[in-house]
Amino acid sequence: MNDLLQVRVTGILIENEQILLVKQQVSNSRAWSLPGGRVEQGETLEDSIVRELLEETGLHTRVVRLLYLCDVPQANPSLIHISFLMERMEGELTLPTNEFDKNPITDVRMVPFEQLGELGFSDTFVHILRHDFPESGTYKGLKSNIGL
Which part of the chain is the Nudix hydrolase domain (predicted)? Predict the structure, then answer.
């Protein structure tokens, strides 16, 4: 019964009107996503997102604040999606080894906000970024409510 629910964390790192993204096939309409992944057994949410950003981007980061808690009930198993605002502590962007990944990351970069629409991100998500995450720290219902 360990497939009743999964927890996924994503990190949003913003510097100079640019957001950190990883290129990885997310869906048929989008190949770029926020870095993150599943919380592993015994990990805190903070440890998980810091680990995921280091593994996927080469950056040492810290959690600044909780942004949003969302549901993805259509996932199998159902998914809770938690987004955190992150800050870079040190490191340079590097590609992960992808040695154990079935869906490898092929690029990592800081992307200007104005290019997000071209990469398949919704106007809702761009609006949230530009307005400093209104209602951050809240439960937002479906993940689509934050434009993801």
Answer: 5-135
Q: CATH code at 55?
A: 3.90.79.10
Residue 147 lies in a domain: no
Give residue 107's pLDDT.
Answer: 94
Q: How many domains does the chain have?
A: 1
Q: Judge whether 1 lies within some domain.
A: no
Query: Do residues 22 and 94 lie in contact, with contact meaning Cβ atoms separated by under 8 Å?
Result: no
Domain assignment of residue 50, given as a range: 6-90+104-138
Per residue in 9-48, pLDDT (tens digit) is: 999 999 999 999 999 877 777 889 999 999 999 999 999 9
Q: Is the pTM of this model over 0.85?
A: yes
